[in-house]
Amino acid sequence: MANSKNVYITPGGGSFIIWFSQGDVGNTATLSLRGESDYYEIPEGAVVKIAGKKPSGMGFNEAVTYDGHEIVVTATEDMTDEAGYIECEIVITYDGNRIGSGNGHLCIERNPHPDDTTDGTAEHLIDELTALVVRVETAAASIHDLSADAETLTAGSDATVTYDEEENALHFGIPRGYDGYIVEGAIGFTDNNAEGNVVITVTP
To answer: Which among 35, 70, 86, 184 could disulfide-bond with 40, CB atoms 3.0 to 4.6 Å apart, if both were Cys?
Structure first.
């Protein structure tokens, strides 16, 4: 359907329709302002906008260009991001006055291919899902069959852990503690990372 050409400056004079596709940016529609009996010439220096409220409740209030009685509406992201039948009007502000046209509708045709659509065939998607399920099942089986062992490392060593993929086994290396000593009923050990000894007293 072609864009309606006439916009009546007097409310109740007739409705107008502008068609855009959802997501359009830069597409244009040319409209003519009409008075009761003739075209309405927009005063030089006036600010002309198209305003309305989208289905979400968010609004738009976008400037349009004009020449005499002719208006060019250019689609913006704010105007076309939501599909729907959106009530709107042309608003002319000049010399402290505000003039709203008769209401019309900005018709945004729904985008049949949203940006988040996954392209491809159902068969291709099923193959990918099947491969993903196999990977999950394999990982789960691997966890159930996992074994672990540990070995004692010399005192002061760094702890280690390695994974053997063929054996599906974890190997831990745990440093042994420092040798203790007994001094007059107390047990102690040497702290190589600080000055002096740490002594733990044992009460018989």
So the answer is: 35
Instruction: Give tens-digit pLDDT for 103-125.
Output: 999 999 999 998 888 787 767 76
In contact, 87 and 105? CB cutoff 8 Å: yes
Burial category of 176 from C-beta neighbours within 10 Å (exposed 0-12, middle 13-18, buried 19 and up): exposed
Q: Which residue has the tokens 């060593």?
A: 157
Cα-Cα-Cα-Cα dihedral sign, residues 17, 19, 22, 27:
negative
Q: Comparing C-alpha atoms, which of 64, 41, 42 is closest to residue 52?
A: 64
Query: What is the H or E stretch that residue 124 is in?
Result: helix 122-144
Higher-confidence position of 57 and 36: 57
Residue 138, amino acid: T
**Same domain (yes/no): 71, 156:** no
DSSP state of 54: -
Which residue has 């000049």 as its token pair?
94
Residues 76 and 18 occupy one common structural domain: yes
- Is 69 in the same domain as 156? no
Whether 89 contacts 83, CB under 8 Å? no
DSSP 39: B
Query: Residue 120 domain-assigned?
Result: no
What pLDDT is stored for residue 3 in this prediction?
54
> Are 105 and 29 in a shared domain?
yes
Residue-range definition of the domain harbouring residue 30? 6-109
- CATH number, domain with residue 32: 2.60.40.3350
Query: Whole-prediction pTM value?
Result: 0.58
